């Protein structure tokens, strides 16, 4: 099942309602698109609690442009480390994770319980990506023996 609520004015209160769907037994929701909503870190924290629930079968979560910062990244990483996490694709593009948020996400990919295959934290342009963040993008390495097949951190150029 797919639920697309992109640009639907979903806020933290809406996330609280969605968590019950993620925790339901059995949960049939496999893809959730909440892009371009004002979820902020508080909404992402609620969603992360649902992601960490053993009944959650969500495989794709799109949070592009949801005002997520380092705090929201920390909540998501905690959920990704949960056993078992079924999430395979996470879109955090057009957010503001900062240097430390990117470091948290990168470290989370190394956890054996993390099954992400695609992580997108592309910036929204030069105005949202600071030089410090570019430093971590360049230093990031992946073990090709892991399940991480797609990682998009680029500025659409290879320097």
UniProtKB/TrEMBL annotation:
PROSITE patterns: LRR (PS51450). This is Uncharacterized protein. It comes from the Eukaryota. The keyword Metal-binding does not apply. The lineage of its organism: Eukaryota, Metazoa, Chordata, Craniata, Vertebrata. It comes from Coregonus suidteri. InterPro entries: Leu-rich_rpt, LRR_dom_sf, NLR. It holds the Pfam family LRR_6. Keywords: Leucine-rich repeat, Repeat.
């Amino acid at each position: 099942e797919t639920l697309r609520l992109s640009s639907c004015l979903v806020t933290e209160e809406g996330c609280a309602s969605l968590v019950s769907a993620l925790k339901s037994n059995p949960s049939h929701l496999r893809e959730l698109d909440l892009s371009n909503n004002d979820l902020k870190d508080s909404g992402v924290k609620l969603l992360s609690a649902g992601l960490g629930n053993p009944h959650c079968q969500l495989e794709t979560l799109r949070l592009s442009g949801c005002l997520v910062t380092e705090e929201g990244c920390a909540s998501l990483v905690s959920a990704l480390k949960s056993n078992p996490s079924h999430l395979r694709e996470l879109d955090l593009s057009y957010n503001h994770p900062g240097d430390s948020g990117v470091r948290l996400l990168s470290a989370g990919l190394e956890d054996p319980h993390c099954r992400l295959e695609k992580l997108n934290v592309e910036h929204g342009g030069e105005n949202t990506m600071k030089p410090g963040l570019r430093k971590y993008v360049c230093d990031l390495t992946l073990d090709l023996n892991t399940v991480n097949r797609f990682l998009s951190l680029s500025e659409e150029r290879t320097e």
